[in-house]
Amino acid sequence: MTYCIIYSTVGSQEEADKIANVLLETRTAACVQMIPIVSAYRWKGKIERANEILLSIKTTDALYLRVEELIRQNHSYEVPQIVKLPITAGLQEYLNWISEETQKAKNKNLSHSDVVYNAK
């Protein structure tokens, strides 16, 4: 089995929580880390800066297209960042855990309204 990390950025913690929960509920991701960042980028001819949340999503290569679809369904950006980076090596127990957590990925279309989030 091959594994990957998918990066996406969102504009708020609420949106990060929404996407993370959809991915975890559908078992298309084993883990989603949410990291506050400042992004500088060109958009529509202007240089922009924005506070964003970087999502670092651990999953399998086989689930990439499903993860992309779920992010697009639940993302507010016109053109969201969704990029896949291969995991070429890693602690085997960790990679096994990714496999275990994603092996029963659900095909059901889920949106934020289908997922209840309980902040701790």
Question: Key features?
Answer:
120 residues, alpha+beta, four-stranded antiparallel sheet, disordered C terminus
Series of secondary-structure elements, N-terminal to C-terminal: EHEEHEH
Unreliable stretches, pLDDT < 50, 5 or more residues?
110-120
Largest sheet: 4 strands, antiparallel
Oligomer: single chain
CATH class: Alpha Beta
Q: Find the CATH topology.
A: Alpha-Beta Plaits
Number of helices: 3
Order of strands across the biggest sheet?
2-3-1-4
CATH architecture: 2-Layer Sandwich
Categorize the overall geometry. Answer: globular
Strand content: 35-45%
Mean pLDDT: 91
Radius of gyration: 15 Å
Structural class: alpha+beta
Terminus-to-terminus distance = 33 Å
Number of strand segments = 4
Share in helix? 25-40%
Total number of domains: 1
